[in-house]
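About this split. The held-out portion is used to measure sequence recovery: a designer receives only the structure tokens and must propose an amino acid at every position. Recovery is the fraction of positions where the proposal matches the reference. Here is one held-out target exactly as it appears in the evaluation file.
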């Protein structure tokens, strides 16, 4: 993947200078992360997790344990990288003293791996928006392109679920509406990990696929589109008033691929917020009541995101900004006549299309985060 280096060019430096350069970057990253504050939070969360009453509220308990695990993982990662940097200096000294090319090659590989991991930590420090720390709800809708678009929407769903799986992030599919011939009309799922929203919010927009259609008996090239929406999970501190009279609640029987029934009762719930036209659905829970509760939580999240966008627009109007928003089309996936995935906004590009579609999208996500922060610092919202 072609991306601009973020830690500076170190190819011309000797190993000791390279390690020193990385250590300086790690020190600045550590200062921003504020490990002392993290240790304080860890102690508080450990105390909460030891309270036997914690699990009387399952949702809160899971949130506490996930947050504790995330903080402990981050602290351990920083400490581990710091120790590996120290060990790397010794490894280079050993290679030099014994004139051992194999040891030198091993040290070079470790140096490159550390450079990558410190770069990832550097990106993590950019996730400082008001909702970046939240879990995320991802919605995907097929757009123009007929059956190919429905198939493309399902391919995107798999891509994001595989990305989450690669990182060990729990996911929960709330709703999937299957298309008649193949693929899906829409889906919504949660990524239940700290900073999932801040990490994924740059994925919002239209994703375009160009390929030879597997549904065309003449093997013609087809362009299809799918929309991705990412919103932060709501928390108890969020205040979005919803008037019950503004809601239309429909119940229906869940269905699977090809119209097959999943449940034998009308337990799936679809909620339409009539003033905004926002529609949310949930069919994964066992009861209608549980599905409605989950759908209401999704609606809260989407209304919260809408409120934030309205506030952003008001600030832009006050400032007199004339710069357009980030735009709708954000990534092109070309499988024919050549292999390429390219971000429209960041310019990040790779020819490894199979890897991307299997969830290897971290380089794209990192580039998006840096691009968004750069624009936000310059005032271009």
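Reference sequence for scoring:
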């Amino acid at each position: 993947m072609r991306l601009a280096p973020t830690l500076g060019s170190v190819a011309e430096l000797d190993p000791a200078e390279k390690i020193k350069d990385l250590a300086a970057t790690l020190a600045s990253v550590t200062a921003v992360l504020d490990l002392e504050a993290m240790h304080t939070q860890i102690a508080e969360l450990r105390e909460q997790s030891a309270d036997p009453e914690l699990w009387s509220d399952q949702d809160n308990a899971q949130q506490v344990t996930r947050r504790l695990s995330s903080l402990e993982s981050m602290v351990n990662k920083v400490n581990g990288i710091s120790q590996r940097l120290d060990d790397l200096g010794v490894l280079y000294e050993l290679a030099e003293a014994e004139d051992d090319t194999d040891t030198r090659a091993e040290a070079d590989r470790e140096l490159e791996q550390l450079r990558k991991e410190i770069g990832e930590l550097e990106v993590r420090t950019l996730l400082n928006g008001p909702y970046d720390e939240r879990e995320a709800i991802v919605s995907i809708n097929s757009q123009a392109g007929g059956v190919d678009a429905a198939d493309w929407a399902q391919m995107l769903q798999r891509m994001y679920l595989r990305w989450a799986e690669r990182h060990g992030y729990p996911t929960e599919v709330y709703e999937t509406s299957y298309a008649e011939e193949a693929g899906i009309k829409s889906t919504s799922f949660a990524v239940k990990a700290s900073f999932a929203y801040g990490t994924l919010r740059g994925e919002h927009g239209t994703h375009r696929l160009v390929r030879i259609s597997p549904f065309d008996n003449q093997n013609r090239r087809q362009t299809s589109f799918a929309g991705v929406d990412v919103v932060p999970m709501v928390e108890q501190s969020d205040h979005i008033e919803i008037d019950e009279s503004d809601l239309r609640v429909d119940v229906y029987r869940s269905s699977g691929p090809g119209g097959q029934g999943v449940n034998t009762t009308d337990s799936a719930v679809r909620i339409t917020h009539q003033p905004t036209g926002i529609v949310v659905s949930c069919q994964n829970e066992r009861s209608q009541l549980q599905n409605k509760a989950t759908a209401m939580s999704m609606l809260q999240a989407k209304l919260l995101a809408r409120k934030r966008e309205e506030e952003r627009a008001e600030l832009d109007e006050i400032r007199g900004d004339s710069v357009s928003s980030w735009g709708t089309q954000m990534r092109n996936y070309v499988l024919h006549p050549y292999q390429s995935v390219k971000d429209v906004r960041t310019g990040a590009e790779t020819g490894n299309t199979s890897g991307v579609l299997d969830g290897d999208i971290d380089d794209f996500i990192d580039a998006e985060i840096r691009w968004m922060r750069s624009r936000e610092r310059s005032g271009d919202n």
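Annotator remark: Residues 15-124 form a domain with the Methane Monooxygenase Hydroxylase; Chain G, domain 1 fold (CATH 1.20.58.410).
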